[in-house]
Amino acid sequence: MITLWILAILVVFVVGLGQRSLIKLKLASLQKDRLKAYFLARAGIQKAVTVLEKNQRDGDGLQAIWSTGVDPVSNKSILNKIELAQGSGESFSVSYLFDPNNNTYLCIADEERKINLNTAPQELLVILLKQAGMADEDARNLAQDMRIWRGDKDVAIDFNADSYSNFKKKPFANPEELVIVLEYFYKTKASGDYRNQARETFIKLEGFITTYGDTPDSAVNINTVSPEVLTLCAKFFAQGLTGVDSVLADALALNLINLRDNQAGKYFKSLGEINNQSLNIALGSAQEELLNELKKILITSSNYFRIESSGSAGKALKKITAVYHRNKDKNVVYWHEN
Q: Does residue 206 contact residue 221 with C-beta atoms inside 8 Å?
């Protein structure tokens, strides 16, 4: 009986030891996969930067290699599900948006296709906020709060009021900072769950806003801008012109997008390709006046690009988001890991 009891105790001990060893092996394997996923995600960032540097041309369009992620010679993906060792199942992908029309991923995002929160004037911010469903008075009040946050000195309110003591009064460092201003706005209105309201509004605005750009006049890239953002910009300039309304602004924005899509490579090499003749606009017309105003903020090449890289190894997934300045500085100005 003593021998049997000793044997039973030894069996329990060995089984327990085996379970502990198995758990440690699984944790070690998971940690190894996490490290692999992390460095694969970093490899995706580096690969994207290399693609941006190697594939520069006289204008940045959505058909460029950095956007499509497809090598035009081999017709193979160079940024989506790239394995460092063939058949390993360990890979990285660089993409930010799925394009259902072409069943492809858009890979690297041009940040300068959006409205810059740091340079957009009051009325453009109001138009942007109203597009997100805000009433006119709310849009104007929030636009004023945004301008105080970024440090504008010409706001018609006590800039140093106690209610704004927690505002940084410096440019937005990234678009996500807008959530703080939105929370303040909804909390001041005492409108229920202000945090959820702020998050919901930010989600509506996220695809339209950026904080990156080198120009002081809220420039947008005509080669990558969406029809919606271009329309908002056209409506902003239409407000200051006699005989120009939102309908005319909508029509001009649509004509510009159609003209862009009919260009070779679907991009403009220079703003000189955008003129009365190419758009079939009469000389001296209100639409010509609106076009001339709009062209003041249009550019054809960009400096700031958002890279979203995911590394996958086993059951581990790591995502890194970076914003890269391509030309003068050639450095990462934003970095975030999940």
A: no
Q: What is the pTM of this model?
A: 0.87
Task: Please report the sign of the dihedral spanned by the C-alpha atoms of residue 122, residue 126, residue 127, residue 128.
Answer: positive
Q: Are β-strands 304-313 and 91-94 bridged in parallel, bridged antiparallel, or unpaired? A: antiparallel
Residue with tokens 């492809």: 104
Q: Give the start-to-end residue ranges of the domains of the chain.
A: 38-109+304-337, 118-210, 228-302
pLDDT at 25: 65
> Nearest CA to 115 among 233, 5, 254?
233
Least confident of 154-158, 212-216, 227-231, 322-326: 154-158
286-294 and 227-238 are packed helices; what angle lies between their axes, rounded to 10 degrees? 110
Measured CA to CA, the distance from residue 135 to residue 77 in angstroms comes to 45
In 84-109, which positions are buried (b, 16+ CB within 10 angstroms) versus exposed (e)? Answer: eeeeeebbbbbbeeeeeeeebbbbbb
Contact 318, 32 (CB under 8 A): no
Dist CA 80 CA 75 (whole Å): 13
For residue 236, the SS3 value is helix
Tokens of 165: 């003591």
